[in-house]
Write a structure and sequence with these properties.
single chain; alpha/beta; Rossmann fold; GMP Synthetase, Chain A, domain 3; 9-stranded mixed β-sheet; 8-stranded mixed β-sheet; 18 helices; 27 strands; about 30% helix
């Protein structure tokens, strides 16, 4: 069976770029109404529930109508703060049909992370078990008009409403308003090396890049079952766990639980997954299982495996070839790019450890800081020529930082890489201090600030260090206040505080107690020196360090 071919004329009709419309109503108009769109598999029990494209169309229409009935409109930012449950997908697409902006939060976020990201929120869709995280900070978020609770049987008050009660009264018919390619759509957040998280704003026209890249890289067939393991709080989860596959009428499987090797392999075997998109961290965790574990599962239906979020180590590819009898195709993109830019894919020979080559619609380059093109095998800034449809349009409230990303006619990604003589790209690291742990970017500044809130801590410095499982782990250097003694209880207190303030992924894997931190003469922590000391490397130029 031939792979699905991208056809922009089928995807966009009468200049209607609305992502919610394309992923549901258009699929029904194309004759796919009775085809399964979403197969949701419950954690622990592995029970499954199917939603056809027609059911998804009606449910998202009800969501759009319910939101409109209580006053939401184009441009309002509506957040989901949910685990991976069917209602999350319905909420996102219903929000987009209304031309409101959809934003998804990781369900393990703490109060500080929530406060940073919810400053412009008009509504939050959540469940009762997560409501307790929101209630203590609501008085600091005056823009929020409603909290819509997905499992509340009745309204709690004028602000905290029962979403089922609203949906029950809402019509399953909705006329999606005309939506141009420049209309804001999905909002994601990323952390920088300093300061607060930045809102990365995408537009409905992103569909052209997302659908095109899905066809070029994943090469889906009409009857494929596709599984993307990413949470919707991550750009992969929206671009390739919602938009791209449903725009092509592909049936998606979504498992509602966390990583569990037995459950994951059961899902792959039982559902006969054809195309699987996951992260190197998950694959490294699978590598810890005995080879005999995998022999219990029949994976004959599994045609392709892809990875994203961090570089794919050559040893993972070698393991997969030996144990799973499959290649793994690594892909590279960012929250800002909105879709895959560089990738390995079927038909392109794999160079283990390489990012692959740019997609056919993408022009990439390795540039020096002065904008000059660098020769093959020389490290420099990984840059992209602007103009692809899924390119972000701004950092909300940080327009100056957005403009700084574009220089010399290129987008500077912040990644350092090199290109070999065959045109393959190789990731070397970040140009800033951002930590890539389990595919998530963690700001050292945020972790340092959180640690400083603990009364026993005088100073803190945070770095990312190589880790066999996580790719990078969070390592904290802590200076304690005088008379404070280090103890296991204090170590646990620090980790829990970071978990509650930011997220579990930001909690330090290792905490080192030091007498002082290296700083510049202006008082800035020199993280590169901390990292060099930790790794036993030469610290380099110390001329700007205070003595």
């Amino acid at each position: 069976m031939a792979a699905v071919q991208f056809n922009p004329n089928t995807l966009v009709r009468n200049n209607q770029y609305n992502l919610g419309y394309i992923c549901t109503q258009l699929q029904c108009e194309l004759g796919r109404g009775d085809k399964v769109a979403l197969r949701w598999i419950a954690p622990a029990t592995l029970e499954k529930v199917d939603f056809t494209f027609r059911q998804l169309e009606k449910a998202t229409n009800q969501m759009a109508n319910a939101l409109q009935e209580i006053g939401y409109k184009e441009g309002d930012i509506i957040f989901t703060f949910l685990p991976k449950i069917p209602m999350q997908f319905i909420a996102v697409l219903g929000t987009l049909k209304l031309k409101a902006i959809a934003a998804c939060l990781f369900s393990n976020f703490g109060d500080e992370a929530l406060l940073d990201r919810l400053q412009e929120a008009k509504a939050v869709i959540t469940k009762q078990s997560l409501l307790r995280k929101l209630q203590p900070i609501l008085d600091k978020l005056p823009s929020i008009r409603h909290i819509l609770v997905v499992d509340a049987p009745k309204h709690q008050n004028e602000k905290i409403l029962s979403l089922p009660s609203l949906l029950e009264k809402a019509s399953d018919q909705f006329v999606v308003p005309p939506t141009s390619e420049k209309t804001p759509s999905i909002l994601h957040f990323t952390s920088g090396s300093t300061g607060k998280s930045k809102g990365v704003q995408h537009v409905h026209g992103s569909i052209l890049s997302q659908a095109d890249s899905f066809c070029e890289v994943f090469q889906p067939r009409d009857n494929d079952l596709y599984w993307c393991t990413a949470d919707l709080g991550w750009v992969t989860g929206t671009s390739y766990g919602v938009i791209a596959p449903w725009s092509q009428g592909t049936t998606q499987v979504h498992y509602g639980g966390a990583y569990n090797p037995q459950d994951w392999l059961t899902v792959l075997e039982r559902e006969k997954i054809n195309v699987w998109y996951t992260a190197p961290t998950a694959l490294r965790m699978l590598m810890r299982e005995e080879d005999a574990f995998f022999q219990k599962f029949g994976l004959s239906a599994l045609r392709h495996i892809y990875s994203v979020g961090e570089p794919l180590n050559p040893e993972i590819l070698a393991w997969s070839r030996r144990v799973l009898k499959r290649d793994i195709y690594d892909t590279w993109f960012q929250t800002e790019t909105g879709s895959i830019m560089i990738a390995n894919r079927p038909g392109l020979p794999i160079k283990p450890g390489s990012m692959g080559k740019p997609l056919s619609t993408i022009t990439a380059a390795i540039l020096g800081d002065d904008g000059k093109h660098l020769p093959a095998n020389q490290c420099g800034n990984l840059c992209l020529q602007p103009g692809w449809p899924s390119m972000f349009i701004t950092y909300r409230q940080y327009e100056d930082i957005y403009r700084e990303k574009f220089r010399y006619g290129y987008y500077f990604s912040g990644d350092i890489a090199q290109r070999d003589e065959d045109g393959y790209y190789w990731f070397l690291g970040r140009s800033d201090d951002v930590i890539n742990t389990t595919g998530h970017l963690v700001s050292p500044f945020e972790v340092e600030s959180s640690l400083l809130e603990v009364e026993e801590v005088a100073e803190s410095g945070v770095i990312g260090a190589p880790d066999d499982i996580l790719f990078e782990k969070v390592v904290a250097f802590v200076v304690l206040k005088k008379s404070v003694k280090w103890s296991p209880e204090l170590e646990l207190k620090l980790r829990l505080h970071v978990t509650n303030r930011i997220a579990a992924i930001a909690a330090p894997q290792e905490i080192l107690i030091v007498d002082s931190l290296p700083k510049t003469k202006s008082g800035k922590i020199m993280r590169r020196i901390l990292k060099a000391q930790y790794l036993g490397q030469d610290a380099g130029d110390l001329s700007t360090m205070e003595m």
